[in-house]
């Protein structure tokens, strides 16, 4: 298994929920974590717990995304892991859905992944190594009513990562995609800890363990896609 000790990892959306769980677990495994999110106050708290670096940023902004990677390189001297986790979503009938909200969802979920990868890949190529992990959703594999914007963004995010995987494999760079089902987080203004959450939802720590699983796979093992089902909590 690959040792994560002293590996430098960027985690976007790290201020709460899945991203926070990923950042904390990677730090527990010895990684040096660059925590990224728009909420500076919550981010500082997570960075303090991970003894890592907090970089407040909007990943849908090209300058901010480049700044994140530049700060990681300036502070730690290299980058080994990029976890594209930042995501937003809202739901409703297509005919009533606000166009500006559609753009916001695509900006964070798709453009944010694209921009962070665009900023990180040149460094990974220069070292002939690196691992990108994208957190998408099981809705990148299915459709549902009222989910046109969110579902389309997750299909698109998956396509970005799948195409990138083919572009960079010959450079020694891995790209893995994780497709969680329902997760008990603050997503879409939900409040974690609902009465049925343990029966119907994954925990953020389940997704974090899936990330750890793909990152710790031996170098010769390629795990392109990993689906996590909320009822069995298996992958």
UniProtKB/TrEMBL annotation:
The protein's name in its UniProt record = SDR family oxidoreductase
Instruction: Show the Pfam families listed in the entry.
Output: adh_short (PF00106)
- InterPro entries given for it? NAD(P)-bd_dom_sf, SDR_fam
Keyword annotations: NADP, Oxidoreductase
What organism, scientifically named, is this protein from? Answer: Hymenobacter yonginensis
Keyword NADP assigned to the entry: answer is yes
**Family from the record:** Belongs to the short-chain dehydrogenases/reductases (SDR) family.
SUPFAM superfamilies the record matches: NAD(P)-binding Rossmann-fold domains
């Amino acid at each position: 298994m690959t040792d994560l000790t002293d590996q430098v990892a960027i985690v976007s959306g790290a201020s709460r929920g899945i991203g926070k769980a990923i950042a904390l677990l990677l730090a527990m495994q010895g990684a040096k974590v660059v925590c990224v999110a728009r909420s500076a106050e919550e981010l500082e708290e997570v960075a303090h717990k991970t003894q890592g670096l907090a970089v407040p940023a909007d990943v849908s902004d090209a300058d901010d995304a480049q700044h994140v990677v530049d700060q990681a390189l300036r502070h730690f001297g290299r980058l080994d892991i990029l976890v594209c986790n930042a995501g937003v979503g809202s739901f409703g009938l297509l005919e009533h859905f606000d166009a500006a909200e559609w753009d916001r969802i695509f900006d964070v979920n798709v453009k944010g992944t694209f921009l962070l990868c665009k900023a990180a890949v040149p460094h990974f190529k220069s070292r002939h190594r690196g691992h990108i992990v994208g957190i998408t959703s099981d809705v990148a594999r299915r459709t549902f009513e009222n989910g046109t914007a969110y579902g389309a963004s997750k299909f698109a995010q998956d396509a970005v990562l799948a195409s990138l995987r083919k572009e960079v494999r010959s450079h020694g760079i891995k790209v893995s995609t994780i497709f969680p089902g329902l997760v008990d987080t603050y997503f879409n203004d939900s409040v974690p800890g609902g009465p049925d959450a343990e029966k119907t939802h994954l925990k953020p720590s389940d997704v974090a363990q899936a990330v750890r699983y793909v990152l710790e796979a031996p170098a010769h093992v390629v795990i392109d896609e990993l689906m996590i089902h909320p009822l069995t909590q298996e992958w």
